[in-house]
Structures are given as C-alpha cells and as structure tokens.
UniProtKB/TrEMBL annotation:
One of its GO terms (molecular function) is lyase activity. It comes from Pseudomonas fakonensis. This is Biotin-independent malonate decarboxylase subunit beta. Keywords: Lyase. Residues 1-256 form the CoA carboxyltransferase N-terminal domain. Its EC number is 4.1.1.88. InterPro entries: AcCoA_carboxyl_beta, COA_CT_N, Malonate_beta.
C-alpha cells in the first residue's frame, strides 16, 4: 500500500465520538448499548447550577465481543464537561465493571476496555463524583483478577485527576501521541504553583512531560500507537494476550526513583523525566 493509499485508508480514532469509538473497537454487529441516551439517565445536579445536562451523562456503556471474546466498553465523551466524572456517569462505569465481574463468576470470561478522555472528578458534583471514581477503582481491581482491564487514552483531553489513578490500576494502558496522562492537569498546576513552574499554555512543554510518547518511553504505559482505528484495535487485541505489568504493585520502585531526586530539584525537562523513570539519574 502506498503512503497516499494508507493515508486515505486510515480513520482517525481521536476524531470519533465516544459512541463511535466503542462501536469501532467491538466486533462488527456485536455492539449493544446499555443505559443509552433514550433512558434519559442524566445528572440531577447540573441543571440546578444552570448547566445543560446530557442524556447519557457523557458516558457510553456497551457490551459486545472483541475478537470473539465477551467484552464491556466504557467510553467517556471528552466533549461533555471535559469528560468529567459525576454521580451518574461514574455509577454507569462502576456498574458495568461489576457486571463483568459477575459474568466471570458465572463462567463468562468478560474483559473490559475503558476509553479515558477525562479531566477527573466533576467539580459541580464534588464528593458524589469522588465516591463514584472510588467505586470504579475498586471494580477495576476486582475485575482484573479475572480478565484484563485495558485503558485507552487517545485524544487531547487526556486523563487526569482521580481517573488517572483508575488508569494506573488497569492491566494495560494504550496511548496515542495526542494523549496526555497525569495526576493534575496543567491548568491546576499552573494555578497552584505559578506559571514559572508550569506554563499551561506551552503545549510542546506539556506534551514533553505528560504526552503519550513520553509516557510510553518512561514505561508508564504499555502500548503506543498511531491515531488510527484499526491500529488501535489491533494493539488492543495484542494487549489482551499480554501478561499485566502490574505497575500498581510496583510502588516501591517508583518511590525509590522519585526519592533519588533529593530535595533541591530544578524544573525537569522531558529527557530528564524519561531518564528518571528508566532508572538512569546519574
């Protein structure tokens, strides 16, 4: 296939909406949405604050098959409230994962894919959103004892806040170059530490620290793939058959790496961060 033909053949995953992404990953004809928009299950809190709610609360839950395997997909719509997690959307994801656990207990080996385009907790729902994220995290840990839970971060919304912790609990993480992954978002860091410490408007700087390519080179994610539907699906299938790296259980190694920096630390650049995580801080 020529470069031109390949370019015309490729289909951007990032440009798809959450529902389209879930449908594109599952085997053709197996997509079945649970608690879809016609159920009108939306946040009861947003309208009270003058915010128009969305009928599915920005979360799409689908069951289907992935290369013949039973699979549940939870896709977060980054275009609605920055993909933030509220009471309803969070409960949908946690409930889907818990049902997958129940499937496995009943002899149905159901895996899970989380499409993570989220800034973390929805501030308008505060503690309710945090409680929902905690339930998601607990469900991920329980399900991965049976089948893989794979997180996919594709678009520029990235994955931050409590949902970045959920991502870290996944069996595997898959990212594109456009993706970002971090505990605190750039705007939050700039607000708290000042623009001299972290300039949220400096896009090359931000991606050099938290972008998909950097996170993969640092060993914090398992797969790095181009923004192409078929490429992401194929990499996803490969990860399903790969033993989990269990990064969540390697906290002592990461704490040791961070501890090696000492107390007097200047602003690290992308190369220094990569060397730190790779264990080369000499």
């Amino acid at each position: 296939m020529t470069d031109t033909a390949r370019l015309l053949h490729n289909r951007s995953f990032v440009e798809l909406g959450a529902r389209q992404r879930a449908r594109a990953l599952l085997d053709s004809g197996t997509f079945r949405e649970l608690l879809g928009p016609f159920e009108r299950l939306m946040s009861p809190w947003l309208a009270r604050q003058g915010i128009v709610p969305q009928a599915d609360d920005g979360v799409v839950i689908a069951k289907g098959r992935l290369a013949g395997r039973p699979c549940v997909v939870a896709a977060i719509e980054g275009g609605f409230q920055g993909g933030s997690m509220g009471e309803v959307g969070g409960a949908k994801i946690a409930g889907a994962l818990e049902l997958a656990v129940e499937d496995n207990r009943n002899g149905i080996p159901t895996c899970a894919v989380l499409l993570l385009e989220t800034g973390g907790v929805r501030l308008q729902e505060a503690n309710l959103g945090l409680a929902a994220i905690a339930e998601i995290q607990a469900a991920i840990v329980e399900l991965r004892g049976y089948q893989p839970v794979i997180g996919v971060i594709a678009g520029a919304v990235g994955c931050f806040g409590g949902m970045s912790i959920a991502a870290g609990l996944c069996s595997h993480l898959l990212v594109t170059r456009e993706a970002r992954l971090g505990l605190n978002g750039p705007q939050v860091i700039e607000q708290e530490a000042g623009i001299e410490e972290y300039n949220a408007g400096d896009r090359p700087f931000i991606w050099s620290l938290t972008g998909g390519e950097q996170r993969h080179a640092s060993g914090l994610v398992d797969g790095y793939v181009a923004d192409d539907v078929e490429s992401i699906r194929q990499q996803l299938l490969q990860l399903l058959d790969t033993p989990s790296a269990n990064r969540a259980g390697q906290y002592a190694r990461y704490l040791e790496r961070l501890g090696s920096l000492g107390e007097d630390v200047t602003q690290l650049d992308g190369a220094a961060v990569r060397a730190l995580y790779q264990g080369d801080v000499s």
